[in-house]
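Mods, move this if it's the wrong board.
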Amino acid sequence: MTLFAGAGWNTEGLAGVRVEPLEHLGRLELDVYHIFGIFIPRHLWILRKILGKAIVVSPLGQLMAYHLERKATRKSLYLRLVKPLLRRVEWFHVFSGREERSVKEHLGNNVLTFEAALGVFPIPAVVAQAEQIVENYNVGLDLLFLGRNDVYQKGIDVLLEGYALARKDGANARLTIAGQPWGDSERYIRSLVERYGLSDKVRVLGAVDEEMKWRLMAGADYLAFLSRWDGPPRPVREAIAVGTPVIVSAETNMGGLVEEYEAGLQVQLTPEKVANAIARASANGGLWRRHREGVIRLRERLEWSRVARDYIQGYEQVLALNR
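Not the wrong board. Structure tokens:
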């Protein structure tokens, strides 16, 4: 495999991968070209350069409704300009059926797709620690959001309102929000916490180091991650790596897998649905234990050796129709 990328990339942990500068694109004869992201003008320059070859494009959730609604005028104009180019691509890689529908909605039902997830990278010491906390669920529910504090994309506003409703209805749950601030997110999150009367129930930690990140992940009962679009979130995959169940939106592009493997709860992006999920989880220790078993199964499914086979099968389909 050849990765064409700018300066700063490395292949640590990836066997059989070499990095080439973008300027070398076109000098090597490759079987399949896979481009990630469509709202990056440089990627579309690359796409134009290799038209006529076997190409796969990953939209990375960028054709999903909530993404297009943000800065809608600018994105609508951009899509109008690039759709003729994108419609010359036969194959798209998607992370879920939800994303596939968004691709076909904008580019037509004739496009071909294959589905493949992103894998997890277990951290042995942390995983070993997590295996020892099976009985962690006792009195009350410990919820965690951990990731970039982009309030809109990551659905932190919906999480806080849903959590407030669940508390109002008697749910015994605590919430920690950690991660790098994004814009004025810290001020906005604290204003929401005060508005909902949650100052003594919600911890806002800000950025944390790697050791603290994994400690928070392993110690939580559930990671709550309610992205409006994503492809798919690394914190969700890190939670799965340490065996922590998750509460996710379908728009994370991981909700279907979470539901299939009973690794947590998939919820709609409304405060009421989020509140209902928190109430269910906080009232039922048996549900948490079932999700704890399911997340271990999902972790096995998302081992990179298995995920890689999904991509290879997809590429084989692409090549079969391009011979």
